[in-house]
Structure formats: C-alpha cells, structure tokens
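Continuing the series of single-chain predictions for the mutant panel. This is the parent chain; the variants come on the following pages.
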Amino acid sequence: MFFVGTAPVGSAEHVNISPKGMPTFRILGPSQVAYLDFVGSGAETIAHLRENGRIVLMFCAFDGPPKIVRLHGTGVVLEPGETGFELLFSMFEPAPGVRCIIRVDVTRISDSCGYSVPRYRYEGERNQLLAWAQHKGPEGLAQYQKEHNAASIDGKPALRWVRS
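Parent structure:
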C-alpha cells in the first residue's frame, strides 16, 4: 500500500491524497517508477499532473521498523493508445478497470521515522474494485469514465479520450 499526493496550482482548489493497493507499483530504473491507475469516482491525480506534473508517493511501514519513504517527482499520465502505454502495461498483471499508467521521474527520495504510524496486520486484498470493473464491462467502464473522469472536482481537464 502507498499513498499518492498531488495539488493544483490554485490555492483555493483541492489538494488530493489517494491510497493505492494491489500489486500495481513498478520500479523502472534508478530514478523512475510507475503505477497502474484504476477507474475511480474522481480524477484528481490525472488533472493535477496535466496541470503541473507535481507528485509525491509515500510508503509507510505498518510492521517492522517504523519508516516512511517519500518519492518526490514529476508525473506523466499515459492513457491507453498513447505512446509508451503498451510497453509499460506489459510490465503489470492484466486487470480490469485500468484507466491509465502514472509514470514518475523521481527527483528526490526521502525517508523519515514512522514513530506515529500504528502497526497493522495485513489480512489480504479487497476484491471489490476488480469485481466492480469486471461487472461494468468495457462499455460500462467507458460510460462511467465519460461521466466521472473527464474533469477534476475543480473542473480541471483529466482523461483526454473522454473529451475527444
């Protein structure tokens, strides 16, 4: 599990933090990572990256030594059909509901203590997201994205294909 943080340029607009799970994270090189982004109720990360590219990924240790690692950098949104998507997608297990890949050029790695992070026991993955996407099917997912992922909650453009 990790968390993704992004922010728009405007101070009156909404900052976003999203939790991510499942085996969706890959290290591509010494200063580049990527993760699968699934269809969801919002598209804040996508919209913020399109506006300014700023992103941070945060990993917390929930057992073992208390540690937090942050990957600061610049993110790029790769939608299906765009250059580079298929190559990166081949590095992941196929799953229903993938709407894009977020690739991050890491400019700073920091670690800190996680003394205030509680200990949690891993009990397993949740299957609701994949089951929901499977049930919706390709046409249902496309319609959902047109309705919910064309723009952020602040009205900033998100997925490109839904606007074309």
